[in-house]
Specification:
0% strand
Length: 83
């Protein structure tokens, strides 16, 4: 199985969620508040604003769980060889 396929398998099985979840929570909430915070606080948020916020959460989550990162994170590390 090649590296990209292993990455996709790890993502689909949820192995990257522990990393992607906290990153998404912090980054996406900050991003959403910076871009749409005033609209939400004043009660003027339309369905389009909520769609934009959903996209804010999807993008960093996808990046954090990227197939190029997942296999390296899941590969077991070898202890150093004793000399």
């Amino acid at each position: 199985m090649d590296r990209a396929t292993r990455g996709i398998v790890l993502i689909l099985r949820g192995h990257t969620a522990p990393t992607a979840g906290p990153i998404a929570a912090v980054v996406d909430t900050t991003h959403s508040l910076a871009n749409q915070g005033e609209i939400i606080v004043t009660g003027q948020a339309s369905i389009l604003v909520w769609i934009r916020i959903a996209i804010n959460y999807a993008c960093p989550s996808t990046s954090a769980a990227s197939p190029t990162r997942a296999p390296a994170a899941a590969e077991p590390t070898q202890p150093p060889a004793h000399q």
